[in-house]
Amino acid sequence: MLDPRLAQAIAETFQVPSAGITEASSPQSIPAWDSLGHLNLVAALEKAFAVSLTMDEILAMQDAGAIARILAARST
Amino acid sequence: MTSLRLLSSFTCDLLAQALRKGGAEVLLAPYGQFRQALAAGGRDAAVDVLLTELDAWVPDGAHGLMALDPARRRALREAILSEISAAAAAASSRGVVLLVASLPVPARPLLGYADWGMEEGEIAWIHATNAAIAAALRSRPPARFWDLGTLRAAFGLAASADDRLRHLGDLRMSAAFTATAASDLLHLVETLSRPSRKVLALDLDGTLWGGLVGEEGMGVAVGREDAAGRAFLAFQQEALSLKRRGILLVLVSKNDEAAALEVLEHHPGMLLKRSDLAAWRINWEDKASNLRAIAAELGLGLDSFAFWDDQPFERAWVSRACPEVAVAEVPADPAAFASALRSWEAFDALALTTEDLARSAQYEAAREREALKASSGSLDDYLSSLETRIRIGPPGPGDLSRLAQLFGKTNQFNLTTRRLGEAELSALMATGRIRILRLMDRFGDQGLVGVAVMEPGAGVWRITDFLLSCRVLGRQAETAFLAACLEEAWKGGASEVRLESVPTPKNAVALDFHRRVGSPIRRGEGPGFPAWIRRENRERENEETAHAGS
Question: Are strands B444-455 and B460-468 parallel, antiparallel or unpaired?
C-alpha cells in the first residue's frame, strides 16, 4: 500500500486519478511523467514530505515503489 | 492573452510552465539557441525575453571571466553590449518588445573577500555590465531591462538557484524562485500594454492615521513621536511621492467631514494636506457610490482608480461593486503599509505607453520583410562566427557510458528512439557500425553529441539510429553528420541509403529533418556539408573509414 501522500503527489503532478497509482507506476505507465514532470514531482514531494532530496535520490526515483523506499529511508 | 518567447542559454522549461499557468502563451526557443532565435527574425510572439548567465558569454562563466585580465574583461562587456544592442534594434524593427534579464550576481564571488579589491572584479563587473545593458536598452525602446537580479536578491540569492536542478537539466532557478520570476515577468509584460492607474483613493481611519477621528479627534496617531505615528507617516510619504508622479490622491471615508478635515489641515504630524487632494467624499454613503461620484467629478473612468482601505469588508465591497477598480491587498500591520504601497503594481508604469506599442505595430508589416531578408544573412554570419569544428568516426571504449546515456535520454532529435543499453552498444561497437560526432566551437569542446548506427548491405545501406544531443541543434551539425555518414556509405559501395525513422510524441524535430533530407537517398544525392562547419581529422588515426575534409 503506497503512502497516500505519495499517491496524491503523483496524481496531482501528472493529473491522473490517484486510485490507479501503484508501486509499479512509472514514466512508462504515466505519459505526463517525462523529465520535466519528474522535476515537478520532486518539488511536490519535497513540499509534502518536508525533505530535500539529493541528486542521486532524484535519479533513482524510477517508479512509485522506488520513491516510497527512498522516502521511507529518509523518515527513519 | 500575452504571447511570450523565451530565449535562453539554459533550460527554461519550468519557467515556461509557470508562465503558462499564469495565463501566458509561451514559446520556448530551442535549448541554448538564443542567438539563432534572435538572428532568425520574424515575429513569433509580441515579447521576446532574453535570459542569459555569464556562461552564455564566456566559456565556463565566472571561472572564464576571472581568467581574463581586466582589459579583456572590459572588452567582453563591450562585446556583450554590442550583441544585445543589435538584438534590441532588430527586435524593435520587427515590432517585438525585447526584455533582457540581468546577469545574476553570485551568492559568493570566486575570489571571496578579495573580489572587491580587484579592478573589474567579478561582482563589480557584473553590476557594471548590467548597468551598461540597461543603459543600452534605454536608448532602444521598446526594448527593456528586466531586473531579475534584484528579484533574486529579494528572494534570497542562495535559495533562488538549485544546484541539483542545474546538474540534472541545466535549470538555473529553483522551483520556488521560478514561480516568483514567472509572476514578476507576467506583471512586467502586462505593464507594457496597460497604463498605470491614475487615481489613488484612500481611507482615513486606520489608513492615513491610527485610531478613529470620531473618537480621538486630534489625538489620532500620525507623526514622528511614536512608532505607530511613524508608520502612518511613512505611508503618507509614499502616497505623496505617487502624487509627484502625477497620480491623483482622493479620499473616501466614513466619517464626519468637518472633524476629518480638521485633522487634515491642522494635525501637526500630518504630512498629507488638504491641498494635496484632488477630491474627497467623507460621508456615510457606501464607498462604491462615493468612488463613482469622484470618478464623475474628475471625468475619469473607474478603471483609472486604485483603492486602499485597511478594512477588509470595505475592500471586498468595492471589489464586488466596482470590479474595474484595483483594490489593494493591505497588510494587517501598518508598519508594512509603506512598502506594500511602493510595491503595489497598480502604479507600475514604464516609459512605454500603449500608443508607442501601437505605433511600432504599424511599422511592423512594412518592415518585417526587410528584416527577414536582412536577418537571413545575419544567421549565416552567426553560424560562421561560432567556428564550429566536428570530428566523426567510430567510438572508443571510453565512450560507452556516454553513448548509453545518449541512447537512453535523447528524445527530441532521435530518429528511431531505440533505447540501446551498454551491453547492446558494446556488441554493436565490436561490429564497427557506430559513428560518433564530436563538436567543438569557440566556446569550447561540446564533447560527444551525436551517434549514428549504419548497417551496410548489398547496394542498400541503412542508418538505423541517428541522434543528436539537443545542446547542438540549430547549427546544422546534423546535416554535417549525415553528409559524412553518406560519404562513407558511397565510398563503401552503397548505391542507396535508407534513413530510418519512427515517430514518437517527442521527436518532431528529428522527423522534420528526416522530411527535409528525404529517404531513401540515392548515390550522389543528399545534403551537402554546411560551409560554416569545418571537419577535423578523423576520430582515430588507425581507422580508415572516416575521410578528412569534404
Answer: antiparallel
Hey, how many other C-beta atoms are within 10 angstroms of the C-beta on B501? 19
Cβ-defined contact of B168 to A43 (cutoff 8 Å) = no
Q: Which residues of B touch A34 (CB under 8 A)?
A: 411, 506
pLDDT in tens, B217-238: 899 999 988 899 999 999 999 9
d(CA A75, CA A73): 6
Q: pLDDT, tens digit, for every residue of B345-384?
A: 888 765 433 333 333 333 333 334 344 444 445 667 767 7
Q: Is B278 exposed, middle or buried (0-12, 13-18, 19+ CB in 10 A)?
A: middle
Quick check: helix, strand or coil at residue B523?
Answer: coil
The backbone torsions φ and ψ at residue B37, rounded to the nearest 5 degrees and listed phi first, read -65, -40
For chain A, count helices (H), then strands (E): 4, 0
Does the distance separating the beta carbons of A35 and B169 come in below 8 Å? Answer: yes
How far apart, in whole angstroms, are the C-alpha atoms of residue A32 and residue B345? Answer: 35
How is residue B346 written as a grid cell? 497598480
Set of cell numbers at residue B304 = 483609472
> Residues B455-504: pLDDT tens digits?
999 899 999 999 998 778 777 899 999 999 999 999 999 999 999 999 98
Residue from B307, B322, B299, B311 nearest B255 by CA: B311
Contact B325, B305 (CB under 8 A): yes
**Order of strands, sheet of B460-468, starting from the edge strand that comes earlier in the sequence:** B521-522, B496-499, B460-468, B444-455, B434-441, B388-393, B533-535
CA torsion B297→B303→B305→B309, rounded to 10°?
120
Q: Does B159 touch chain A (CB under 8 A)?
A: no
Rounded (10°) CA dihedral B541, B545, B548, B550:
-170
C-alpha to C-alpha distance for B284 and B433, rounded to whole angstroms: 88
The complex's ipTM works out to: 0.87
The identity of residue B123, as a single letter, is: I
CA distance from start to end of chain B: 49
Q: How far is A55 from chain B (nearest CA, A)?
A: 6
Question: Are β-strands B444-455 and B434-441 bridged in parallel, bridged antiparallel, or unpaired?
Answer: antiparallel
Q: How far apart are CA B81 and CA B79, in angstroms?
A: 5
- Residue A58 and residue B164: Cβ atoms within 8 Å? yes
Q: Is B307 helix (H, G, I), strand (E, B) or coil?
A: strand
Q: What is the pTM of this model?
A: 0.62
Name B144's bridge partners.
B99
* C-alpha–C-alpha distance, residues B431 and A32, integer Å: 37
